[in-house]
Specification:
Layout (H helix, E strand, L loop, with lengths): L1 E7 L4 E6 L5 H12 L6 E5 L2 E2 L17 E6 L27
Parallel strand pairs: 1-5
Antiparallel strand pairs: 1-2, 3-4, 3-5
Length: about 100
Amino acid sequence: MFIIKIVTITGKEFELDIENSDTVEKIKERLEEKEGIPPAQQCIIYSGKQLKDDKKTVKDYGIKSGVVLHLVLALRGGNCTYTYLSTLITIKILIVLSSL
């Protein structure tokens, strides 16, 4: 068992205890318990890439102790949009959806 850090799009941070055998699906279920976000609306990003396969394990993705996973919300239709910046800056983007 080891600890990883989760960072949400709002900047909230918390830690999860996970195992190498945990699947992405299991992590999403635990995130739902903590944050109330249904797994279908979650996108988990590791090292700039989306963890798309819910059946793959932490070990499959090479996730180790102390790494940071980013939790972002999927847009309607299930698309996940995320931009990875390698610099230490924060950019907040406000998207306003309206019915025209």
